[in-house]
Every structure is written in structure tokens, then in C-alpha cells.
Write a structure and sequence with these properties.
mainly beta, 123 residues, seven-stranded mixed beta sheet, four-stranded antiparallel beta sheet
């Protein structure tokens, strides 16, 4: 079992930045694909970004490509989401997730989920 705890959310004005962190536990953390998802009220949860075990492979939703950067530090069991040029439509609860297996479909198959952290972008 992998335990995940997100942090770093908050209120920011449009055009601003936030750095979200996801702290994980478990002996095999460094072998997991890590993903970020978000969910706004009344909407389905959507994929945001993913990074493989080494940090050298990444995948981004079109809506955040060029603005968000996902990275990880396996020595700290932590994955990050640097969110720049934030827009009001980025407002959502952001969730960290983990899964094992190969890098086939980085947007699906996640097993472990954090509690989420709120990101609110004002105009």
C-alpha cells in the first residue's frame, strides 16, 4: 500500500503560480508511475500530468501543456506539480495518484490516491 498526501494548494490570482507537492510512503515508491488529476465541482475527474519512475518520461493534458511541469525526487519520496500562468479554469481539487507496471497508458490505471489539495484561481 502507498500512502499519498498532497500539499501546496491555495488561492492565487490569474497568471500566478503554485507548486504542489505529493509526499508518498512505501518501499517501492520509486518504482511507481505518479500522476496528477483534478476535479472541479460538478465535473468528472480529469488527467493533468504524469511522470514515470525515473522522472525522464512525462505526459501532460493539452489544457496544461506548456504551463505545468511534473517532476519527482525519489530520494524524498515526493512528486511535484509546478503550475504556472494559472487560469480560473484551473480551479479544482488536485489529486496525486500512483500505479505500478510499465509506461503504457500514463493516463489510466491508478490504484492509490491522495486526499487532494484545493487550488483556486481568481480573475
Amino acid at each position: 500500500q502507498v500512502q499519498l498526501v498532497e500539499s501546496g494548494g491555495g488561492l492565487v490570482q490569474a497568471g500566478g503560480s503554485l507548486r504542489l507537492s505529493c509526499a508518498g510512503s512505501g518501499r517501492s515508491f520509486s518504482l511507481y508511475t505518479m500522476g496528477w488529476f483534478r476535479q472541479a465541482p460538478g465535473k468528472e475527474r480529469e488527467f493533468v500530468a504524469a511522470v514515470n519512475w525515473s522522472g525522464y518520461s512525462t505526459d501532460y493534458a493539452d489544457s496544461v501543456k506548456g504551463r505545468f511541469t511534473v517532476s519527482r525526487d525519489n530520494t524524498k519520496n515526493t512528486v511535484y506539480l509546478q503550475a504556472n500562468s494559472l487560469k480560473p479554469e484551473d480551479t479544482a481539487v488536485y489529486y496525486c495518484a500512483a500505479k505500478g507496471g510499465s509506461w503504457i497508458d500514463p493516463r489510466a490505471g491508478y490504484v492509490y490516491w491522495g486526499q487532494g489539495t484545493q487550488v483556486t484561481v481568481s480573475s
